[in-house]
Amino acid sequence: MQKALAEFIGTFTLVFFGCGAAVIAGPAIAGATTVGVLGIAFAFGLAIVAMAYAIGPISGCHVNPAVSLGALIAGRMSAGDFVTYVIAQILGAIVGTLVLYLIMTGKASGWTGGLGANGWGPGYLGEYNVVSAFVFETVATFIFLVVILGVTHKLVPHHFAGLAIGLTLTMIHIVGINVTGVSVNPARSIGPALFSGGAAISQLWLFIVAPLLGAAIAGFVYRAAILYGGET
Length: 232
Known about the structure:
By secondary structure, the chain is mostly helical. The chain has one domain: Up-down Bundle (Glycerol uptake facilitator protein). It is 71% helix and 0% strand. The protein is built from 9 helices and no strands. The protein has helices at residues 2-24, 36-59, 65-73, 79-104, 130-151, 161-180, 186-196, 199-202, 204-229. Helix 5 packs parallel to helix 9 (204-229). The radius of gyration is 17 Å and the shape is globular. The two termini are 33 Å apart.
């Protein structure tokens, strides 16, 4: 239960502050301050850095079903823990979006109803097609998992692991926000989609399948490297 609570809090924080930056301070909302793509990217990255050091010692700070799947395939966690983590992560994302929704409904004007949902196609940010979206989410999640599994290896000093992981997520967002809004995390996509409805729901499958695929490939690659390449 300690691990589940930690994952709930971590995913809540990621979604609330990451999507919150996009909705409250992003370029889509007219107001006194906008942070743009770079600011949104750092909001997601810094949320991961903060949670890595806050809940990392308890649960490892996966806050992402794709990360948990990669860890499972790599032999880093049990199937029972995997199920517990995923449930806690999805619930954390939903509650994080709910709190953001409650805040945004108090805005007098200017809010169009968006909650940072992922998407693609005409009318969505850079208007990339489904192939571009799928390729980006798969490759970006693969790279994300390679970094996570590498910097948390037992032979690697872990003092700066949270910083490395957070900066990697920031890098991914800088490149990918205009493509898909960046998921690389099914829970992060599920929360906003449930409250946004419409295209966010119909396109949600991609932000579940592609990140899980990328994570699974990374998990298999990591496991193969350990089994056949030695512990170094």
